[in-house]
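Blinded run. Sample ID left blank on purpose so nobody reads anything into the name before looking at the predicted structure. Input follows.
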Amino acid sequence: LNSMSHLPCWLQVAQGLLTPTIAVTTTYIAWQQWRATQLKMKMERYERRLRIYQETRRFISEVAAEFNPPYLMMFGFDASTAEADLIFPPEIREYLNELFEHAKQLHAAQVVFRDCTQSHPAGYDHARVSAAIDQHSKWFSAQPEMAKEKFKPFLIIFK
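Blinded prediction complete.
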């Protein structure tokens, strides 16, 4: 005879529901693990993006402190933000390149700048050099807010 027939009805129903309950529970646990992994990946990407943003803000601050960026600082910035190509869309790399280019132009203008106590080499155009320094200095002065706006869409964790 069937051993199930000797069990009370409620126990037979409970045994019948055990397999679907285990399946649902296992599925739920797997789904929760998947969600946790997705959140962990999102947080890791956020941390990597935040680091690039912080490097960018640091670079802007350092350039704006004296408006005479040394090449070592510029190339350090370029190296410290190299990962941006992998974790941001192209417009962020374009912005980082623009920062580097303005810093390079500012540096070049500062190298050739001569004040009234220094002799001026042949062909030196003080007005042009001063205008270049002024233009790039003003541009960098506006960049803290501009950087925030450029990076903001990529640094919002919860929408």
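Unblinding after everyone has recorded impressions. The helical segments are 9-66, 71-80, 84-87, 90-112, 126-141, 143-151.
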